[in-house]
Amino acid sequence: MMKEDIKLIMADVDGTLLNDEKKVTPRTAETIRSLKEKGIRFGIATGRSPYAVRLLVHDWGIADCTDLILGFNGGAIYDVKSGKMQEILPLSGDAVKQLKKDLAGFACVCGVYDREEFHVTKRDARTERTAVMNHFTLVEDDLDHYETVNKVLVTADPDVIVKIMEWYPQEEHIYSMAPSAKDRIEVVNPELTKSKGMAVLCEQEGLKPENVLTFGDMMNDYEMIRDYTGVAMGNADPKIKEAAKYITASNNEDGIAVFIEDYL
Predict the structure, then answer these.
(1) pLDDT tens-digit map of 181-231
(2) 239: closest CA among 219, 258, 214?
(3) CA distance 11 to 221
(4) Contact yes or no for 73/195 (Cβ under 8 A)
(5) Range in 123-132, 174-183, 235-244 with the lowest mean pLDDT
(6) How far, in Å, CA of 56 to CA of 161, rounded?
(7) Residue-level pLDDT at 171
(8) How far is CA 262 from CA 62, 98, 139, in A?
(9) Distance between CA atoms of 209 and 212, rounded to whole angstroms?
């Protein structure tokens, strides 16, 4: 990696930017803030809703140094300065209905982020916690009325998540799913990945893949770690570490700050 080539850093949130207490540490925040002096922009690439993240960056203490938010696993690009939101490759309503049918035998809940609301097939402790964490209103909903959605979040106990991923057919499917935490799966348009969203962003910003440094830990980060200058967290899935060009410390050890301090 030529450090002078790096113009943009994009970091996943959970298990990457945030430690296990769901906080950005002062060291990491200060290191991100120092990027501006080097002419490097900072952005977030997450499965979370960009409508939530644009509020949460204030809680995390990095609102002043976050330039871009790539939300919904690449399905929405939010420019913080201009306030412009662009959505790409949504999931069809038919796919949502099929997903509900496919998962009917599993003890899980399907949820959709609808601007500042979180619509779920069943209210439980996990979905209530998710709504509170994102500053969203929780709404119980069968989800059948949606023509398109940005993504579906499937939540369940970790052992159920494992069973769903074991069941999930690997061949081409009407939707694509990847775990983003032990108790949740992101379901999106099969053509959509964080990397696809990054490609649209790079084209708009006039950037090449070698100009972008990416940090991640879970399988919904896989493509953006593989396709750009990818850095795996110390706590990352082994497959993420295999795809990454570099490996840093864990999310609880200021992994992002450590790498930036050492390399940039």
Answers:
(1) 899 999 999 999 999 999 999 999 999 999 999 999 999 999 999 999 999
(2) 219
(3) 9
(4) no
(5) 174-183
(6) 26
(7) 67
(8) 21, 47, 45
(9) 6
Token look-up 């993240």 returns: 53
Which residue would you say has higher pLDDT here, 67 or 2? 67
How far apart CA 186 and CA 52 sit, in angstroms, is: 16
Q: Which of 76, 189, 98, 87 is nearest to 143 (CA)?
A: 98
The β-bridge relationship of strands 68-71 and 109-114 is unpaired
Neighbours of 212 (CB within 10 A): 25
Which of 2-6, 60-64, 167-171 is the least confident region?
Answer: 167-171
Residue 105's Cβ-count burial label (10 Å; 0-12, 13-18, 19+) is: exposed
String of DSSP letters for 52-96? HHHHHHHHTT-GGG--EEEEGGGTEEEETTTTEEEE-SPEEHHHH
Structural contact between residues 248 and 233, judged by C-beta atoms closer than 8 angstroms: yes
In 3D, which of 188, 229, 245, 251 has the Cα closest to residue 6? Answer: 229
Dihedral sign for Cα 91, 109, 185, 43, please: positive
1: how many CB neighbours lie within 10 A of its CB?
Answer: 13
**Mean pLDDT in the chain?**
96
Give the pLDDT confidence of 95-151 residue by residue, as tens digits: 999 999 999 999 999 999 999 999 999 999 999 999 999 999 999 999 999 999 999
